[in-house]
Amino acid sequence: MKFSEEEIRDMVYGDFDGDVVETIEGENRRWTRSNITYVQIDNKFYELVWEQGLTENQEDDFWEQDAPEVERVITSRTVYSWEWKPVK
User: 8 in a domain, yes or no?
Assistant: First the structure.
């Protein structure tokens, strides 16, 4: 679905008829960070990419984009960890 710069700004800031489901922050660069925000509109999920300014002089940056429709998939993972114990 194609969204305008203003629509994406409103969605990221939560000012729209839908829900912000999750925002994944990318790595910090000198002035900005790339973020991905997932929103739900009418039982469909969309992925929005935008730049977050990291200083008081850098504004958040949004641009018109064809936001892909995505689906939320539940996965199961096994995580192994270890701890150290003294040898008796």
Answer: yes
